[in-house]
Amino acid sequence: MKKLISLVKNVHSRQCQVNWSVQVRFLQKDSVSKPKRYKYPSLYDPYGSRPQPSSKIMELSERIASLYPKERKQIKEKKEKTVFDVKLEKFDTAAKIKVIKEGRAFTSLGLKEAKELVEKVPVVIKQGLTKEEANGIIEKIKAVGGVADIE
């Protein structure tokens, strides 16, 4: 048992000496030598080279570059609207009760709130609808005698 312990200690001490000598050599070389300075190209891309843009992209970029600044702004401003609001413009006084009932049907308002809403004409009845939903509501309001528009 004693031999085994002495053998392990001996092997361990030799490994420590080897590691220490490697560390000392590394530190000696590092302290003497100067750090390397790398020269990067003026347009350095750390992610590597990228493929050339396609011919369609090049054609579009040339077209956009040839436009006047006002025309470029118009391109940015043209966005297709996806969310619509329904606005009640007016209604027949004889059809007021029917318009209130229809207003209650597609809003979650009570009778009193729906009446107050309809009496505030022109007013936005429902917001954040798709075009199909908005057109459906407008048709229902027109059927009972009201006039509504999409905003």
UniProtKB/TrEMBL annotation:
Keywords: Ribonucleoprotein, Ribosomal protein
GO CC terms in record: ribonucleoprotein complex; ribosome
Large ribosomal subunit protein bL12 C-terminal domain location: 84-150
Signal peptide: none
Statement: the UniProt record of this protein carries the keyword Iron: no
Any matching Pfam family: Ribosomal_L12
Source superkingdom: Eukaryota
GO molecular function terms attached to this record: structural constituent of ribosome
Biological processes, Gene Ontology terms: translation
InterPro entries in UniProt: Ribosomal_bL12 (IPR000206), Ribosomal_bL12_C (IPR013823), Ribosomal_bL12_C/ClpS-like (IPR014719)
Family: Belongs to the bacterial ribosomal protein bL12 family.
Name of the protein in its database record: Large ribosomal subunit protein bL12 C-terminal domain-containing protein
Lineage, opening ranks: Eukaryota, Viridiplantae, Streptophyta, Embryophyta, Tracheophyta
